[in-house]
Amino acid sequence: MDSFLLESDFLFENRKLQMKKNDKCPCGSGTKFNDCCGGILAGHCKAKTAEELMRSRYVAYVAKNVDYLVRTTHPNAREEGLADSIRKWMRQVEWLKLHVVATTEDRVEFVAEYITSTAPGRHHECSVFQCLEGEWFYLGEETEGD
Ligand SMILES: [Zn+2]
After folding, report:
1. Surface-to-core class of residue 50, CB atoms within 10 Å of its CB (0-12 exposed, 13-18 middle, 19+ buried)
2. For the chain, domain boundaries
C-alpha cells in the first residue's frame, strides 16, 4: 500500500479504464474480455501459460492496474519502487495494440504499440516468465546471454 496519495495519483486513478465484460479483450485475442484476460485480472482464474500471463499484463497496463502488475512480477524481480516505476510509465504512454510475435513455454516476444503526448511508438520485448507452484510470473526482459 502506498502511504501517500498525490493529487496526480487521484487523477490517475480516475483515468482507469472501465472495460466491459462483453467487449473484445484489449489483448487482441478476439475473445470477449470476460472470457479472456478479464477473469484472470479479476482473480477468477489463473493464467495457464506464459502467453496468457503476458496478455493479461498488457491489459493491466491498458487498464492501469498497478497492483496486478506488481503481483504477477516474480518475487525475485520485485524491486523496490516497482509500483512507482510502473505508474510513471503508465502516465507517459497510452497502450494501443498488442502483437504477440513468438511464444515458447517460458518466453513471449511481442510488440506493443503506444502513443505518448508527443509521438506514437512501439515497444519490442522478449519477456521471460517462470512458473512457481502452478502460477506464472513475469521475470523480466530477456537480455543478451540468457
Ligand atoms: Zn485477453
Report:
1. buried
2. 7-141
Flag whether pLDDT at 7 surpasses 50: no
User: How far is the C-alpha of 119 from the C-alpha of 22, rounded, in Å?
Assistant: 31
For 27-72, the pLDDT digits (tens) are 999 999 999 999 999 999 999 999 999 999 999 999 999 999 999 9
Give the Å distance between the CA of 3 and the centre of ligand 1: 32
Centre of ligand 1 to C-alpha 34, Å, is 8
What's the 2 CA to ligand 1 centre distance in angstroms? 28
Residues linked to residue 117 through DSSP beta bridges, in sequence order = none
Domain 7-141, what architecture? Roll (3.10)
Task: List CB contacts of 27: < 8 A, sequence separation 6 or more.
Answer: 36, 37, 55, 56, 58, 59, 98
pLDDT in tens, 107-133: 999 999 999 989 999 999 999 999 999
Instruction: Please identify every residue whose CB atom is under 5 Å from ligand 1, which is an ion.
Output: 25, 27, 29, 36-37, 55
